[in-house]
Design brief:
The complex is a heterodimer of chains A (about 350) and B (about 800). With about 350 residues, chain A is an alpha+beta fold. In chain A, the strands form three sheets. A seven-stranded mixed sheet of chain A has the order 1-4-5-11-10-7-6, with helices on both faces. Chain A has a two-stranded antiparallel sheet with strand order 2-3. Chain A has a two-stranded antiparallel ribbon with strand order 8-9. In chain A, helix 1 packs parallel to helix 4 and helix 5 packs across helix 10. Chain A is rod-shaped, with a radius of gyration of 44 Å. The N and C termini of chain A lie far apart (about 95 Å). Chain B has about 800 residues and is of the alpha+beta class. Chain B folds into six domains: about 70 residues, Phenylalanyl-tRNA Synthetase, Chain B, domain 1 (2-Layer Sandwich), CATH 3.30.56; about 110 residues, Nucleic acid-binding proteins (OB fold (Dihydrolipoamide Acetyltransferase, E2P)), CATH 2.40.50; about 200 residues, 3-Layer(bba) Sandwich (Phenylalanyl-tRNA Synthetase, Chain B, domain 3), CATH 3.50.40.10; about 70 residues, Phenylalanyl-tRNA Synthetase, Chain B, domain 1; about 200 residues, BirA Bifunctional Protein, domain 2, CATH 3.30.930.10; about 90 residues, Alpha-Beta Plaits (2-Layer Sandwich), CATH 3.30.70.380. In chain B, helix 2 crosses helix 4, helix 12 packs across helix 13 and helix 14 crosses helix 19. Classes of the chains: A alpha+beta (about 350), B alpha+beta (about 800). At the A-B interface, helix 5, strand 1, strand 2, helix 6 and helix 7 of A face helix 2, helix 8, helix 11, helix 13 and helix 14 of B.
Chain lengths: ~350, ~800
């Protein structure tokens, strides 16, 4: 009788396959088991396929038994597969373990702006915020713009070759950024609000506080009603932006050929907070004076406006202020740079401290 | 200049401490540099004493044992070494514990067995003179023993050291400084000591004794001289010596001290001649002959140029005008007749002479600021009183006065409303009057809202216009009282220009890719350029460089970068990426109207905006290391492609089209050098390359790659930001095709790329070379470039057929340059 033997065979097949599933030790072995017992050429598959050839009265029982074996096998393979995968992942992760104490990859290395550039930008940004445009100009300059139109009489000592580098009789390396005052006014009618950063040159033998090349930032504001009080207000904003929100500025009378009145501008010491004291000692930054001289300024001299009267600068109709500050001086004060010569040595041990 | 405070107080004593006076001066325009103490420590330890008896020391011939009444209950025993000590003298006594001017503390030492309980003092020990030949004997004019010595002698003082701006010659005299104190504080100022003019004596006339003449009025505005007879030359009194010493001058003799003292009060320098030594009794003022020699008072023989003004007698020069006298007619102990000179020299001329000779004196420092001719007579008046009082001299009637063009007093108008309009705060009219009058101006009403001020001679150089008067009012009113306001700023806006913004962006890009910025000198040495193979003759030269090292303006940034690299390599930092952003300099070229003879454009008096030289802003970098070493990767040395990668990044940021082609530079490896050009007009934008091995050797630097770009040119080519509108790159997918192109070895990648582009047509969106292969199967002299091509159409998805068609076009284009596609 065919039926009992067929059923027995299915049972045997089921037991054999279940043993194989249990015995499979890896996902790949389990796949082999699946192909062997559930694949297209597997005996169980053939049995199921041949059910329709059985006599009708046998079909139900055999089919039911064969399907039961297949379903059980599929469940077991899925369960076994999940277990094996989890084990294998765990193993792989264990294999991938790193020494987390080794150094990480350096971030894409970043360089540094030169301290002087960093400060120049900071100043530019402050003055842009105060409504000034940023201009630049030639460093090889005419004596006319550097001295004559800035109200330096022909005999002024700054014109001597001891104080100015000359390229020819009337061409020199600018000794300050002030010539751009005149160029800026020649180029455009009032009102004018500009700052001019740039390199300037003086034949000073290098020492801790002198170098033959340095940087200044010039400011110029000309309008109908600019006053010395406006200069004070602008420089107060500058001082607070650069040296701290609680700074004060102090104007003292000074002297420059191209401003009248001329003033020296002090800022309250940002190291001792304007007290002049560091503990029981004198503050080393302001030397106990509570104030630090920071720049020269003044109301643009009517004689200077006279040189650009044709461009709309009638000294009876417009007036304004000008100021000029040394960028290196701010660097020395703010960052404690002890010797100006270090700034042009370009030692990366210095460069890498600033401007990241 | 040193201003002794006690001296200052003798003219104006506001009842403030020395440091408060210093603040007053600083805030009114005379910057105080320092405040010193001079003289003894606590003056209480110094008293007047009477020597009761002086006996020879039992154990020392040269010492005396003195009993001195110093006002105490018992006389003191003091051992004294001075030869002139004697019983009955009134002397200066330091009690034990006194602090001497040099800082030493006086104890009670035993001298050869006798305890000395104090010290009898010589002039120099008190800091009131330089005499150390014996003790100082005080005049016995009613001083009681025990009187504080400070009541008899100026033994302690404070000195304010001030910095004088060029516009304030008046502040180079103590009285001028006192005037500022008066103006600020309102404390009364004593009468100008130069005002009274003593009466002469005798019936003779100065003209009978001497003659003065100005031969060249361009160098001397005024020359005055007075004649003194019966002059007794000797030491100055203690008070005068002390004032001079506190002011930093050595006392010499009464006559010479008088000239210095008058100068220190009034700022007018004087010179005293021994009239008997003035040959021919004649003074002539003239220019030196070129090369003429003179031995000045300091014993130095000086050769003079024809610019120098000389004071001469009948036979030759006797002094360099306004700077220093000569030895020929110096006042000596034997002098009895003095010719006192007070002259007015031309400031700029004195400055040039002083600078030319390297000889800056108290006199030249004053004359170079420009003195008014009226001050010469002021000096004469004060000197006359002192010559009579201190030297017993007789003033011969008459003043010799060569004064070719007398100068009047200046009058300057002031509109009162202009003060507030200029400084931002109105000053009341009565305050304006008060301030100007205290400063020595004579003030008169000049119409409604106006005044007119007569300028005192001592201020003539500085106050010539309305703005100058406003400064006077403002500085005394107090600049620090001004409010802080902000400008109304109509129409003006703050911004940086596009070129400035782009330059910042490019600098940031280099910084963020690992390069550090350097700042190097704008000048370099001709030899540095020669080491780069650049002709130094092409560079702009400085006529008066500090040294050969900085004598030419650099035409490129590379030398500064090489120096920085050398410096850091020498200090153990070889792996570097450095950049600089700065100007380079070149002569104007022929078509820019240079006159050909000069490297810089010749200037008219007013150049009207022209620039004398060609300057452009460059951005350059020098790299030795592209990637630093880590524990899991090797360092990558910077080579041509590392530098090129940075350049490409910068040009992408700038948004300009470019091309890079072989381009040799003398300082670059000839096979690894390229020129960068703008694609549109072929304009040169810079160069890229590896250093020539010979340059590396000459500069002693490690192998490095570099580039230098013209940031100005790039900014000109850069399109305005946001110029391009939106493009749809997402609606339709791109087709990516990799192709391998086999070509001859010497065919450049650019040629291959161009051929591929030509074949690929408009649908090609991007092309990227991602591999270079050479191998036997290609055959000798052939190479294979792998390219990734991306095709895209804006309006449809491309079909395989379309792309296949492109591919065959590419094949055709490559065939024309001898290349083909690899299967």
């Amino acid at each position: 009788m065919a039926e009992p033997s067929a059923k027995r065979r299915l049972e045997e097949l089921g037991s054999e396959a279940e043993a194989a599933v249990v015995a499979a030790g890896a996902v790949s072995e389990l796949e082999d088991v699946r192909v062997r017992y559930l694949g297209r050429r597997a005996e169980l598959t053939a049995t199921l396929r041949s059910i329709r050839d059985l006599p009708a009265e046998e079909r139900g029982a055999v089919g039911k038994a064969a399907n039961a074996v297949r379903m059980r096998l599929e469940e077991m393979i899925a369960a076994r597969g999940a277990a094996l995968e989890a084990a294998e992942l765990e193993h792989r992760l264990e294999q991938d373990r790193l020494d987390v104490t080794l150094p990480g990859d350096p971030p894409f290395s970043t360089g540094h702006l030169h301290l002087v550039s960093a400060i120049r930008r900071e100043l530019e940004d402050v003055f842009v915020g105060l409504g000034f445009a940023v201009l630049e100009g030639p460093e090889v300059e005419y004596e006319y713009y550097n001295f004559t139109a800035l109200n330096h009489p022909p005999s002024h000592p700054a014109r001597l070759p001891q104080d100015t580098f000359y390229l020819s009789d009337r061409v020199l390396l600018r000794t300050h950024t002030s010539p751009m005052q005149v160029r800026a006014m020649e180029a455009g009618e009032p009102p004018i609000y500009v700052v001019v950063p740039g390199r300037v040159y003086r034949p000073d033998t290098p020492d801790a506080t002198h170098v033959p090349m340095f940087h200044q930032l010039e400011g110029l504001a000309i309008d109908e009603d600019i006053t010395l009080a406006d200069l004070r207000g602008v420089l107060l904003e500058f001082a607070r932006a650069v040296f701290g929100a609680s700074r004060e500025v102090r104007l003292r009378p000074g002297y420059f050929p191209f401003t009248e009145p001329s003033v020296e501008v002090d800022v309250s010491c940002f190291v001792c907070d304007g007290t002049g004291a560091a503990g029981s000692e004198r503050c080393p930054t302001c030397k106990g004076e509570a104030w630090i001289e920071i720049l020269g300024a003044g109301m643009v001299d009517p004689n200077v406006l006279g040189y650009v009267a044709d461009s709309g600068y009638d000294p009876e109709r417009v007036q304004g202020f000008a100021f000029g500050m040394g960028i290196e001086r701010i660097a020395m004060l703010k960052y404690g740079i002890p010797d100006l010569r270090m700034l042009w040595e370009n030692d990366v041990r210095l460069l890498e401290q600033f401007g990241a | 200049m040193r201003v002794p405070v006690a001296w200052l107080r003798s003219y104006c004593d506001p009842g403030l401490s020395a440091s408060q006076i210093a603040d007053v001066l600083t805030m009114s325009g005379i910057k105080v540099e320092r405040l010193h103490r001079v003289g003894v420590g606590d003056p209480a330890a110094f008293v007047v004493g009477r020597v009761l008896e002086a006996e020879r020391h039992p154990n020392a011939d040269r010492l005396s044992v003195c009993r001195v009444d110093d006002g105490g209950e018992q006389p003191r025993t003091i051992v004294c070494g001075a030869p002139n000590v004697a019983g009955g003298q009134m002397v200066a006594v330091a009690r034990p514990g006194a602090v001497m001017p040099d800082g030493t503390h006086l104890g009670e030492p035993k001298l050869r067995g006798v305890r000395s309980s104090g010290m009898i003092l010589a002039e120099d020990e008190l800091g009131v003179g330089e005499d150390h030949t014996g003790i100082l004997v005080l005049e016995d004019d009613g001083l009681a023993p025990g009187t504080p010595l400070a009541e008899a002698l100026p033994i302690a003082d404070e000195v304010i050291e001030i910095e004088i701006t060029p516009n304030r010659p008046d502040a180079m005299g103590v009285y001028g400084v006192a005037r500022d104190v008066h103006a600020v504080t309102g404390t009364p100022l004593v009468e100008d000591p130069t005002a009274p003019d003593p009466e002469p004596a005798g019936a003779d006339r100065a003209e009978e004794h001497a003659h003065v003449e100005i031969a060249d009025p361009e160098i001397c505005l005024r020359f005055t001289a007075r004649v003194f007879e019966d002059v007794k030359v000797g030491p100055s009194p203690a008070w005068l010596k002390q004032r001079l010493m506190a002011a930093g001058q050595r006392p010499i003799s009464n006559v010479v001290d008088i000239t210095n003292y008058v100068m220190l009060i009034s700022a007018q320098p004087l010179h005293a001649f021994d009239l008997d030594q003035v040959r021919g009794s004649r003074i002539v003022v003239r220019r030196a002959h070129e090369g003429e020699a003179l031995t000045t008072l300091d014993g130095v023989e000086r050769r003079l140029s024809s610019e120098v003004a000389l004071v001469c007698d009948a036979e030759g020069p006797s002094g360099i005008a306004g700077v220093m006298g000569g030895q020929v007619s110096e006042v000596s102990a034997k002098t009895t007749r003095v010719l006192m000179e007070a002259a007015t020299w031309v400031g700029p001329n004195i400055m040039r002479t002083s600078r030319g000779l390297g000889l800056r004196t108290e006199a030249s420092a004053r004359f170079e600021k420009g003195l008014h001719p009226e001050l010469a007579m002021a000096g004469q008046r004060l000197a006359t009183r002192l010559m009579i009082d201190l030297c017993g001299a007789r003033l011969v009637p008459g003043t010799l006065d060569a004064y070719p063009k007398p100068v009047g007093r200046r009058r300057v108008g002031l509109r009162l409303g202009r003060i507030g309009a200029l400084v931002g705060e109105a000053v009341p009219e009565d305050e304006v009057h008060t301030v100007l009058e205290r400063l020595g101006f004579e003030v008169a009403h000049g119409g409604t809202g106006q005044l007119e001020a007569v300028v005192p001679p001592s201020r003539d150089g500085d106050v010539q216009r309305e703005a100058d008067l406003i400064e006077e009012v403002a500085r005394i009113h107090g600049l620090d009282r001004l409010p802080a306001t902000l400008p109304a700023r109509r129409r003006a806006v703050g911004r940086m220009g596009p070129a400035q913004r782009l330059r910042r962006r490019l600098e940031d890009a280099l910084r963020d890719r690992g390069a550090s910025e350097v700042v190097a000198y704008s000048f370099t040495s001709p030899s540095a350029l020669e080491r780069l193979g650049v002709d130094p003759a092409e560079a702009l030269a400085i006529r008066n460089p500090l040294s050969e090292e900085g004598s030419v303006m650099r035409p490129l940034l590379l030398p500064g970068l090489l120096e920085a690299l050398g410096h850091n390599a020498a200090h153990g930092r070889p792996g570097l990426a450095l950049f600089e952003s700065a100007h380079v300099y070149a002569a104007v070229t022929g078509d820019e109207e240079g006159d050909g003879s000069d490297p810089v454009r010749a200037a008219e008096e007013a150049p009207a905006g022209a620039r004398p030289a060609r300057e452009s802003h460059h951005l350059a970098a020098l790299l030795t290391e592209a990637v630093p070493p880590t524990w899991r990767a090797q360092a990558r040395v910077a080579d041509f492609y590392a530098a090129k990668g940075l350049v490409e990044a910068l040009l992408v940021i700038a948004g300009i089209e470019w091309r890079i082609e072989p381009g040799a530079r003398p300082f670059l490896h000839p096979g690894r050098a390229a020129t960068v050009r703008g694609a549109a007009d072929g304009r040169e934008l810079g160069w890229i390359g590896e250093l020539h091995p010979l340059v590396e050797r000459a500069w002693e630097v490690p192998p490095a790659a570099a580039f230098e770009l013209d940031a100005d040119a790039i900014a000109e080519l850069a399109p305005a930001r946001g110029h391009d509108g939106y493009r749809d790159l997402t609606s339709f997918p791109a087709v990516v095709q990799d192709v391998a192109v086999v070509v001859d070895e010497d065919l450049s990648a650019a040629r291959v790329e161009a051929a591929v582009r030509a074949g690929a047509g408009e649908l090609l969106r991007s092309i990227r070379i991602f591999d270079l292969y050479r191998g036997e199967q290609l055959g000798a002299g052939r190479k294979s470039l792998a390219l990734r091509l991306e095709f895209r159409a804006p309006d449809r998805t491309l079909t395989d057929a379309e792309v296949a068609e492109r591919r065959s076009e590419i094949e055709g284009a490559l065939a024309e340059i001898g290349g083909g596609l690899r299967a």
